[in-house]
Amino acid sequence: MSIRTAVILAAGAGARMWPFATVRNKAAMPVANVPNVRRLADSLATIGIDRLVVVVGAQAGSVRHALLGCSLPVAFVGSEPGGTASALLAGLGQVEDETFLVVYGDTVTTEANMRAVAQAPAATGAAGAVLTDPMPHGEGSDWYHAHVEDGLVRGIVGHECDGEVRVCGVLALHRSIIPVLEANPGFMRSVPVGGMPPAEADLMQSLNDWDADVAAVPATDFVIDMDKPWQALAANHAMARRLTDGLTESVIHPTALISDGAEISGFVQVGAGSVIGNRAMLRGPAIIGAGARLINGPILEGGNVIGDGTRLSDYGLVGHYSVVGHNCVVGHGAEIDGAMLDGSYLWHYCEVCGLVGHSVDIGAATVCGTLRFDDGNAEHRIRGRRERPAVLANSTYYGDFSRTGVNVITMPGARIGCYACVGAGVVVTGDVPDRTLRLLKQETVDRPWGPERYGW
């Protein structure tokens, strides 16, 4: 492969990812316990990229931290808000190659898809290439639509309702696009009538203006744009499936301890110093990190990724293709179906379905409602727009460093903000803003009572 440099765009504010972009850039959102930008960097190294340029902006520290110790040399470039074309132009000041990869930092995909895009210019003779996949049903107005003829992109339209092919965030470009980026009009010109594009320099508009052939590369594997919380949860599920289904044998570190009383089926990977104790039930495939403790009857339903130093115990249940981060606790009678980020606790007696942020403390008997009486999907407000996601709409989304008291109930689709606390007994029927304490106001009535009420 002749392409040696990749530019990762990780500068956007990620407002639609609330409540998970308050303390991090969405490119640093963990996917199967690895920040996505680090996962991209490692995959790019595997396909032959030997240098990264990373464009940072909002929450830049989270991106820099995620790439600490990366195997590739990384050049960080700051970019002011202004759009993807402006961000790329800033990054290209550090690129001398004729052809290079561009990867959006919130794109979750596989090495196979990125390798196919990187190889496409040489294989087709086109100056550029872009990853595409079929438009998700009913989501045409959410994505860029590529008009494809004879394997080439003949035009890109922003948020076209009846689009059939979606543009994804992996591209190969030639330096001849630089003057086009410099002349970007500052908004997406190709939109349906009344489409109202924001005043941002859009890379897709520069692709439309570039007088060069751009190959359409159909995705052969999953590709998820992590723009909203349910997409981050879907990315964790998809990556857990990919990683665990890829196990072809069990790999047990010599220092791991496995009790004869543990029940294990399928392939498992167990890290150094981990303990799988008596009555533990692991339905593989599963990946268990280093120093994890699965003791006294925890149940893993399969396809799970468990982080380093995590304790699963006392008949806690981890659902199918669920991810539990590093140094977490799933304790007595607790259930998780979804994903937990590092340091979160489900101490006992709770049923959580959704995405649990960093260092979240879930109170005892906290329960997530997931089924509406109309059997429909919950409505969410994203920057004022009403949306009903096709999948994972009814999960609960707990922002980083949030807490719940005992007996909290979250109704389908609830989102709890970063640094927020929900007091005991509250029924959460909508979003709880960041930095908010929501308490139940209780009214009680006292009346005289005693033995005389029973005929004494």
Word description of this protein:
The protein has 456 residues and is of the alpha/beta class. The protein folds into 2 domains: 5-227, Alpha-Beta Complex (Spore Coat Polysaccharide Biosynthesis Protein SpsA, Chain A); 242-438, 3 Solenoid (UDP N-Acetylglucosamine Acyltransferase, domain 1). Strand 2 and strand 3 (34-35) form a beta hairpin. Helix 3 (84-92) packs across helix 6. The relative contact order is 0.10. The model has no long low-confidence stretch (mean pLDDT 96).
Please write out the topology.
Blueprint: E1 5-10, E2 30-31, E3 34-35, H1 36-46, E4 51-56, H2 60-66, E5 74-78, H3 84-92, E6 99-104, E7 107-108, H4 111-124, E8 128-134, E9 144-149, E10 152-158, E11 165-174, H5 178-182, H6 203-209, E12 214-218, E13 224-225, H7 229-245, E14 251-252, E15 257-258, E16 263-265, E17 268-270, E18 275-276, E19 281-283, E20 286-288, E21 293-295, E22 299-300, E23 304-306, E24 311-313, E25 317-318, E26 323-324, E27 329-332, E28 335-340, E29 345-348, E30 351-356, E31 361-362, E32 367-368, E33 380-382, E34 385-387, E35 396-398, E36 403-404, E37 409-410, E38 415-416, E39 421-422, E40 427-428, E41 437-438
Parallel strand pairs: 1-4, 1-6, 4-5, 8-12, 14-17, 15-18, 16-19, 17-20, 18-21, 19-22, 20-23, 21-24, 22-25, 23-26, 24-27, 25-28, 26-28, 27-29, 28-30, 29-31, 30-35, 32-37, 35-38, 36-39, 37-40, 39-41
Antiparallel strand pairs: 2-3, 6-11, 7-13, 8-11, 9-10, 33-34
